[in-house]
Amino acid sequence: MNNNLKEQVLRSSGVNVLKCMRCGKCSGTCPSYDEMEYHPHQFVYMVEKGDIETLMESKSIYKCLTCFACVERCPRGVEPAKVVEAVRLATIRKQGNNHLIPDAIPEMLDEDLPQQAIVTAFRKYTK
Amino acid sequence: MQKIGVFVCHCGTNIAATVDVKAVAEALSHEAGVVISQEYQYMCSEAGQNLVKDAIKEHGLTGVVICSCSPRMHENTFRKAAAAAGLNPYLVEIANIREQCSWIHKDIATATEKAIILGKAAIAKVHLNTPLVAGESPVAKRALVIGGGIAGIQTALDIAEAGFEVDIVEKEATIGGKMAQIDKTFPTLDCAACILTPKMVEASQNEKITIHSYSEVSAVKGFIGNFTATIKKKRRFVDETKCTGCGACTEVCPMQKVPNAFNLGLNNRGAVYIPFAQAVPKVATIDANYCLKLRKGDVNEKVCGKCAAACTVGAINYHQQDEYIEQKYGAIVVATGFNPIKLDKYDEFAYNQCPDVVTSLELERLMNAAGPNGGTLLRPSDKTHPHKIVFVQCVGSRCDDSKGKPYCSKICCMYTAKHAMLIREKYPDTEVYVFYIDVRTPGKNFDEFYRRAVEQYNVHYIKGMVGKVTPKADGTIDVQASDLLSNEQLHIDADMVVLATAIEPDKTARPLATMLTTQMDTNDFFTEAHAKLRPVESATAGIFLSGACQGPKDIPETVAQASAAASKAIGLLVKDSITCNPCVAHSNELMCNGCSACEKVCPYGAITYQDKEFRTPYRTTVMRRVASVNPAVCQGCGACTVACPSGAMDLNGFSNSQIMAEVDAICK
């Protein structure tokens, strides 16, 4: 359990995970459910437990469409999509890890990609 | 010379843990007039009360100050103790050092300081207290029951049994309420009508009970033992005394496209109707919104009139007007009941889109032998047998405030198990799924009942919630839900979806609470006088609570509470008179300038003005208009003392000088 990470996710999402009553309506309504390894209700529960790293390593954080169906329908007003977004942010903000290696760039290059996007990507994904 | 005794209570650790009670007793012992200052662990106990009594006798005390809990809790206890020792009970003052001090402060030093100040204020007041003698007022031997559901019927029957007159006021055309609409009752599965309708008949045949159906309470005045209520009998365009309930008018009415409210709009009825076969009173009512003649505006015009022609006893009266009845009551019982909530906010369940998505109460009607399909369960859309039915629990219950009701509606788990079981029993080829968050079955034989649904009837209980309901072109309904235990998302191709809709208090409850000056909680349920120890009394004396108007309840609980409320009302009605509160207002006629400000603010109508002759110098007299208070009607709220610009109005026991003395003591 990583308390700092949990604190960061709670703060950046603004979500009170303790309001959850474990009904699973968020997962019942999620259009990306089958794509996800961890489902919306699991995000809420695992953040409550402080098990953030597992979520950060999962592809699930990129499968959420941010359609906010779960936010709209949660009976308790928990807002699971905001939790997913916060975990995604925690991954992006991870210090000391280069997500983009300059040598790998030429292979990824696309004619249609604006140069500014590459510059921005470097600024964002390298530290 | 005043001799005041101060008694500081520890309340176990309730006060003593946060307030230094010894320091309080010591500090207050130095106040002027204080001859004895003691502390004790439980002042309300027998031993504690004896401490007070002994001190009154031994020191000849002229005033007593108790530093303890709220006066709402034990003021009466100590007043009685003082009276037993020969001291006028109104010479006792309470300083609330628990609710207003120890419970809300954490720091001992500041809490102790505040406790001392509150004690000083009470001592300053008791210096000015005067002995008061309580008067008596008579009790009207008649009870009013507002609401004619099972709660109101049971209360009325019990009060009538004790020999008192009871009036039931019911806003619908028949008594019976929600229970009349229900098919079977849990956990015994006996038919609701079979056990309710005999009670309805009993109520109508009881000589002591008067049923005002299609009526509303439009005004209530007075106080415990002496309420005056105005009952508005809405015009039903049928003479109740003549109508025999034969139903001839309902058959000839050409306007047969009125949504049948008793069947929740699942079928139609005529503009003139009798809600159901066993209605009490069995009298027809014309719905003026649909009647071809009444809609015209001018009833003398030659339109329709078929019902009047068909009626052999001449009961139809298109000229009928609302009637107002004024009646005196000693006690009032509120039994306004509940309704399922509106489902407009929950688009995900497609309730407004698809006729085959129904509420549980609608399912009751669909399955009822007297319902729109004669008891055969058919889909409302195409009248075919459903083969796969999905039940959704907690629709609108247990929600965040913005999404629905924050409370558990309590009855849904059990009636859903009942529905599932009945369907599996009658139609074994039907698959039944229940999506639940928790199954809550506290109650006698309740969990056994739910287990029977699972084990004996093979109802599929799935832990999870339905997220989305989508009606499809082929007439089936796609139910998308999560199954939390197998951690997967399900799609069920259902024929019908039943929503266990949250329940809320009836809309008439809030205006009624204002009329009765009783309290409600934020959900519009009536608040009981004490959550544990006075569950059927409201905080307003003489007003009692029965059934779901106080909180969600099933039928056995409602009946139990109805009888409890009746016994409390009977306890009041058997008295010939009740002791009045002597802390009432009085007007100093010499200071009164006749402005009428007090008369306007008085919520009880206790103040009247009269012209009175006053002597002036040189043997002359002058006529002046002055206020006078009827002490039997005054409730001592003090509104007039605040409104009076000349300071002529004063309240016994809370006089202007007493209040100012308290304020001075606090600010010193």
Summary keywords:
heterodimer, A: 127 residues, mainly alpha, Fumarate Reductase Iron-sulfur Protein, Chain B, domain 2, 9 helices, B: 668 residues, alpha/beta, 5-stranded parallel sheet, 36 strands
Furnish the topology, listing elements before pairings.
The complex is a heterodimer of chains A (127) and B (668).
Chain A: H1 3-13, H2 25-29, H3 40-49, H4 52-57, H5 60-63, H6 69-73, H7 80-92, H8 105-108, H9 115-125
Chain B: E1 4-9, H1 21-29, E2 34-40, H2 46-59, E3 63-68, H3 71-84, E4 92-96, H4 98-102, H5 108-128, E5 136-138, E6 142-146, H6 150-161, E7 165-169, E8 184-185, E9 190-191, H7 192-205, E10 209-212, E11 215-221, E12 227-233, H8 248-252, E13 258-259, E14 268-269, E15 272-273, E16 285-286, H9 292-295, H10 306-310, E17 323-329, E18 331-334, E19 338-340, E20 357-359, H11 360-367, E21 388-395, H12 412-426, E22 431-436, H13 446-455, E23 460-463, E24 466-471, E25 477-483, E26 488-494, E27 496-501, E28 503-505, H14 509-516, E29 528-530, E30 534-538, E31 543-545, H15 555-573, E32 577-579, E33 585-587, H16 597-601, E34 607-616, E35 620-629, H17 639-643, E36 649-651, H18 656-667
Helix pairs in contact in B: 1-5, 2-3, 5-18, 6-7, 6-15, 12-13
Describe the protein's architecture and organization:
The complex is a heterodimer of chains A (127) and B (668). Chain A is mainly α and 127 residues long. Chain A folds into 2 domains: 3-94, Alpha-helical ferredoxin (Fumarate Reductase Iron-sulfur Protein, Chain B, domain 2); 100-127, no CATH class. Chain A is 54% helix and 0% strand. Chain A has 9 helices and no strands. In chain A, helix 1 crosses helix 7 and helix 3 (40-49) packs across helix 7 (80-92). Chain A is globular and about 50 Å long. The mean pLDDT of chain A is 89. Chain B is of the alpha/beta class. Chain B is 28% helix and 26% strand. Chain B contains 18 helices and 36 strands. In chain B, a hairpin with a 4-residue loop joins strand 25 (477-483) and strand 26. In chain B, helix 5 packs antiparallel against helix 18. The longest helix of chain B is centred in the N-terminal third of the chain and has 21 residues, at 108-128. Chain B is globular, with a radius of gyration of 31 Å. Chain B starts with a strand and ends with a helix. The model of chain B has no long low-confidence stretch (mean pLDDT 95).
